[in-house]
Amino acid sequence: MRTGCFRNAVRAGESLMKLVADLKQYLILNDFHSVNEAITNNSQLFRNTQSECDKKLMKLRDEMAMDLYDLEEEYYTSIFK
User: Fold this and answer.
1) Percentage of the chain with pLDDT > 70?
2) How far from each other are the two terminal CA atoms of the chain, in whole angstroms?
3) Are 75 and 81 in contact (CB under 8 A)?
4) What's the CA gap between 72 and 53, in Å, rounded?
5) Distance (Å, rounded) from C-alpha 62 to C-alpha 69?
6) What is the spatial distance between Cα 59 and Cα 65, in angstroms, rounded to a whole number?
7) Do the beta carbons of residue 40 and residue 46 sit within 8 Å?
8) What is the mean pLDDT of the segment spanning 77-81?
9) Where are the alpha helices (DSSP H) in the chain?
10) pLDDT per position as a tens digit, 31-55
11) What integer pLDDT is reported at residue 1 of this predicted model?
């Protein structure tokens, strides 16, 4: 008789573990609010990173343009052409 109770307890435990796994999977797959929030946060982070990169690139472009202007001026006014 004890063996039957033990088997029932094992089956009940396995069923409970499967139920918990199914609930976790359901929550992960259907938690749209959290997914949308994460997407929004990542999008904002990427926009900020893009903005910073754009500013750095524009600053670099301006510095290169000034250096090129100075080099051209030096070249055209040099006596060693």
Assistant:
1) 96
2) 107
3) yes
4) 28
5) 11
6) 10
7) no
8) 79
9) 2-30, 32-77
10) 888 888 999 999 999 999 999 999 9
11) 52
